[in-house]
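A quick word before the example. In earlier lectures we treated sequence and structure as two separate objects. From today on, think of them as two lines of the same record. Here is DUF1003 domain-containing protein written that way.
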Amino acid sequence: MTTESSQSTSKVPVDHLRFHRPHAHLGPTFGNDRFALRAEAFARFFGTPMFLGGQTLIVLLWVSLNMLGVVHFDAYPFILLNLAFSLQSAYAAPLILLAQTRQAARDKAQAEADAQHREALAIANSERQAQAAQNTAQLLELLEQNTRLTEMTKALTERIDCLTTEMHQKFVSQPLVP
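And the structure line, produced from the sequence above:
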């Protein structure tokens, strides 16, 4: 029966973020508005293999089409391509900084939650140690009392044995009167 109860409790999912929930009200530096969330998502997209592969494919296609003469919208020094890269970097850098700032704010809130949790654990541990020390002191006192009671019981038992022996000797030494 204890196996069933331990199995049923082990099936309950553990909420590992329960100590971070009190800090959920701490908003990120730039808020949770639509722009901030999309800017952060876009900045996160810059570092993905899909973005890098797509950008490489576009550049190869751009250069190939212009070099082979299929189209002539950007001649050899590829000034328009350089302008596109400059525009992309002009927006990418601030968006990446925005994402880093928001992540730093989240990390700080989680670090504070972790620190508070560790402090609560330390306090609870100190309280448990104090309770254990108190229980140990009570147990030692009870053991001491038990030892005294055992010695008293032994002394009384010896006294009873002695008195019983004396009574037996008196009854044996005295003749019975009819």
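Notice the following. The radius of gyration is 42 Å. We will return to this example when we discuss secondary structure assignment.
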